[in-house]
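Journal club side-thread
Mid-discussion, someone asked how the predicted structure for our own chain would compare to the paper's figures. Pasting it here so we can look after the session.
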Amino acid sequence: MHGYNTTPCTSHKNIRFVPVTMLLSLQELLQEYWPHFVFLFTVTAAVTAAIHAAMNKTDVRAAIGWVGVIIFSPLFGAFFYLIAGINRVRQDQISQQRDRSLRDYSTLDDTPITEVAPYSAPQFESLRTLGDTVSSFPLCDGNHIQLLCSGDETYPAMIEAIENAKVSIALQTYIFDNDQKGRMIADALARAVKRGVEVRVLIDAIGSKYSRPPIVSLLRRLGVRTALFMTNPLGMRMPYANLRSHRKILIVDGCIGFTGGMNIRAGFTTGPSGEPAARDTHFKVEGPIVLQLTAVFSQDWEFTTREVLPHETWCCANWSPPEPRVPARCIRSGPDRTILSTHHMLLGAFAVAQHSIRIQSPYFLPDVALLGALNTAARRGIQVDIVIPGQNNLRLVNYAMTAQLDQVIRNGCRVWRARGTFNHSKLITIDGAWSYVGSSNLDPRSLRLNFELDVEIHSRQMAAELEQRIDAEIADSDLVTLDTLAAIPFIKRLRNKIIWLASPYL
């Protein structure tokens, strides 16, 4: 019989055979009407994506931006939103696993304090309460925190700690360059492995690509167990492609920790000929806060590799940090259950300020709420100083920053453009008594997309040290005024404003 496949199959007697003429008709239908099908698919995808953005985005600017992108480019916009616009981490079951892992470590700490006035000032009591609700960690006394200036002080201290490690080393960073300093640290880690030390290294998948070839292969050849955050064996996890771990952590034997804003890059050290280096600030910590660093690293490592790190190997049972000892705690933030943690802490800190707010940030692009808090503080008579680099390593971010500066200057905040080499430090002090330091920048990426780690410190002495650094930067800075902004040529001001419109996505 023509047009039908009637060949019997003894093992599949119940299969219904499709007429060849029907297949031909379907092929002809597709050839004739494929543009209509493509149009229908595009409209369906765009409408679905736009509805999802409108219903799920909590920031109205983000919702409007995504809906606009989807409408103006329906197929590409919907695909781009699928990849970069949906926060799957917050909805993923592994978020619950991360929380359980964190609680397992945090319950080992039994030294929280309930009164901070003797260490900082009475107005920070309410900020301690805020931190209790925002952070998974208690504010603990008995921490020694040492300020380290750039790579010339930080990398030797890190290597010395690694060389003295006896049990375990945990290292997490955004950038780990394959350069002279990076290889020095890699070699120190390799020597620790040969001594029998348990070593784990976690590098962000995007940050690992800042140098060619990436250092990951070298670390693995040296026997250092290394993993990339947000990847799988086949490459990038596309649903998480826009999310990054910006945290910087080093923990040795569970007793000594390093954290702050520094990546591992030779550019932050003085060159062999004495050429000036980029600048940054890092911190060596001892005491109960190291346990909190360990908790953050362990959950990120488990999230990436599914390996659970046992407490007896990675935690210190007793701390004997040197004096002075101060109350401090870790504040972790990221596009999961901890989103907006740093945002809430900063809003609270700016609200309780009574005398001064000092901010040093390489990328200053706060959202409307933070801008409002800073402007309100300035109008209350609080002296607000904001120090940003005169030379920035990210040109587009610098353009967007410049376009927004008038919003704080006209309300009484002082903005300073630092001379000299690029400064990557992220430092905030309030009233010379409270400090907030770590990996977070004051920009949309750090506040909403990156996994960040910061430290809240109640200490007049530490605040005084940080303010000395900030004041030294101000002394070698140029004051930005409305007149200097108006003197920028119109075409450049227009360029800056256009780039500023895209600032939530920089």
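Post-session note: Residues 1-15, 90-99, 233-240 have pLDDT under 50 and may be disordered.
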